[in-house]
Amino acid sequence: MPVIVKVNMTAKEIATVENPDYKLLGGRALSARILLDEVPPNCEPLGAKNKLVIAPGLLAGTPVTSGSRISCGAKSPLTNGIKEANCGGNIGLFLGRFGIKAVVLEGLPADVNAYVLKIDKDGSSLLVMNELKQSGTYETDQKLRAKFGKEIGVLCIGPAGENRLKMAAIASSDPNGELKFAARGGLGAVMGSKGIKAVVVDKTLKQPIYHDRQQFMEMVRVIHAGFINDPKIKQVNQRVGTAGIVKAVNAMGALPTHNFRQGAIDGVEGLSGETMYATITSRGGEGKAGVSCMNGCLIKCSNIYPDASGKKICSTLQYESIALLGSNLGFTNLDPVARLNYECDDIGVDSIEAGAVLGVAIDMGLGKWNDLDGCMALMKEIRNNTLLGKVLGHGVQVTGDVLGSKRIPAAKGQSFAGYDPRTLKGNGVTYAMSPMGADHTAGNCFGSRGEVNPRGTGQQGELSRSLQYKMCALDSLGFCIFSRPPLFKDPNKMSTLVNSLCGTDISVDHLWEIMGVNVVRTEREFNIRAGLSPANDKLPEYVYVEPLAPTHEVFDLSEEEMLKGIV
Amino acid sequence: MAVIRLHLTLIKMAGDRKELVVDAQKPVLLTTLLERLGVPQEEVGIIVRNRKGDKIDCMIHEEDVVELFPILSGG
């Protein structure tokens, strides 16, 4: 039976436990369950009672494409509620192959050492590696690869996590030696509070135990054939990745611009996925589009963005970072966005939250729009953990409060993602009503194929609600949300995978219930017990009264419509 | 006149046309225009008409600016 590895950082003890009740739970579903079962919801997020759950999705370790994401969950220092963030990389695959359902970091160390949790064929152990202290994520990853081998899976934090900044992220190494981020909610600060600088998992060729391997592999072949034969994957995903939506969001008037003062920017072409792809291919060198962030992923939406000489600036440049670090800061060129993106990645902060922080800071007079040097100077404050850096590093709500802003683009303490809720109202429902706070991955209503008018006042609650539990199911299984269109077209494929892996006989309805509905309700229960009452299910007041140029929309959904967004 | 802009994979489907101007003095169904262009309806994921999301069965009027995108989702 797959096991849970519990690492007590107070006693420095490691135990391995089994729990048959968790058989069908993975990723986000498992972390929600463990947190509600074991963590007092009213605990201090950076205190001894909180736990960080690192859980690969239920399908992790199997060869199904885009299905071995790693999920991190804890009580968030940013929202003060439950939070889950997931990303690609190698580690989910390797943990799944080792038969590890979750690694749970608990307690607080009395010392100030930097610990590395090492997991390999012989078990788990804690190593002191103080030479990694205050290292950036890239240096940390490189040092760990030099010590333990190139093919390891790594989860690590940068200086922001060690300094317990509330927008600290957790980095995950991918097959190309690049980093992906479980970025939202400040979970890197929780990892830092446990004294864990990194988790290292050896590559293994072990295989999960299948109930019916043949049936599982047959379904994998069907799914893979669908992906391979989908021309959009090759022509869109592998060229422009998530950046393919920049112009669409701008055209709708929902692109964060100048600290969410506008929903569109002149010169959007310079930020578009098309420009990104043309730049990558024309500059050559280390630049590359169509890169996998997980072994065997067929979507390959990642990229390596180079400078004019072909040297890598960052990997990967994607939509949310382009929106928050680009148009939101007045840039219409991808080079400064890539520079800021790298800085966020290496310090180990969420690029969405960081973009919102810089936007508010500039708006309140700490900088200028379209000014890379000014933005980099503020990022340096965060890296160096100065007093100003601490303020900025605690996220957009703290930054806005300290600077006296009346326009803080946040819900439940977490910054909006790359969609202004005034013109994509379904995402306003998700930001306000989801237990995750303002996180688009909790129920992104963008691109719902014209089912619901994005600026209409009806059907938004139901759309958000439906997407909240369906996206959650993907998070629980370990699937990337980019695999949503082909999988949602025939969800039986997902239930067949689960049944042939686990020996169950669940229907699609059961799958949505177990992996989606029940999980979001568990999260909501945690939040209510944590003191995040329904009174916290709201957006900042300015979006209700300040018309957003150029559409002049305000957020005008009724209370009744908002309540429909509760799962 | 109305302006129709195509993006990403839809450009190739429309015979490498990125933008076209159509006479819409008499309002015309978007689906009719798509048929003329050779773009299958099911390939159009996002329709933005005059900065507002719209549906596949919308009518195109004189002075409209319509942006058409394939099925896309954010990351």
Mean pLDDT of chain A: 96
Structural Rg of chain B: 11 Å
The largest pleated sheet of chain B is described as: 5 strands, mixed
| SSE succession of chain B | EHEEHEEEE
Which key phrases capture this entry?
heterodimer; A: about 575 residues; alpha+beta; six-stranded mixed beta sheet; 17 strands; B: about 80 residues; 2 helices; about 15% helix; globular
Your description of this structure?
The complex is a heterodimer of chains A (567) and B (75). Chain A has 567 residues and is an alpha+beta fold. Helices cover 40% and strands 14% of the residues of chain A. Chain A has 22 helices and 17 strands. In chain A, a hairpin with a 5-residue loop joins strand 10 and strand 11. Chain B contains 2 helices and 7 strands. The radius of gyration of chain B is 11 Å and the shape is globular. Classes of the chains: A alpha+beta (567), B alpha+beta (75). The interface between A and B is medium-sized, with 40 and 22 residues.
Brief overview:
By secondary structure, chain A is an alpha+beta fold. Chain A has helices at 27-38, 91-98, 137-148, 159-162, 187-193, 213-228, 231-240, 246-252, 273-283, 319-325, 334-347, 351-366, 372-383, 387-393, 396-403, 425-433, 460-477, 484-489, 492-502, 508-530, 542-545, 559-563, and strands at 3-8, 13-17, 52-56, 70-75, 82-87, 100-106, 115-120, 123-128, 153-156, 170-173, 179-182, 196-201, 288-291, 302-306, 312-314, 410-411, 414-415. Helix content of chain B is 17%, strand content 37%.
What is the strand and helix layout of this fold?
The complex is a heterodimer of chains A (567) and B (75).
Chain A (H helix, E strand, L loop, with lengths): L2 E6 L4 E5 L9 H12 L13 E5 L13 E6 L6 E6 L3 H8 L1 E7 L8 E6 L2 E6 L8 H12 L4 E4 L2 H4 L7 E4 L5 E4 L4 H7 L2 E6 L11 H16 L2 H10 L5 H7 L20 H11 L4 E4 L10 E5 L5 E3 L4 H7 L8 H14 L3 H16 L5 H12 L3 H7 L2 H8 L6 E2 L2 E2 L9 H9 L26 H18 L6 H6 L2 H11 L5 H23 L11 H4 L13 H5 L4
Parallel strand pairs in A: 1-6, 7-12
Antiparallel strand pairs in A: 1-2, 3-4, 3-6, 4-5, 7-8, 9-10, 9-12, 10-11, 13-14, 14-15, 16-17
Chain B lengths: L1 E5 L2 H5 L5 E4 L5 E2 H8 L6 E6 L2 E3 L4 E2 L4 E6 L5
Parallel strand pairs in B: 1-7
Antiparallel strand pairs in B: 1-2, 3-6, 4-5, 4-7
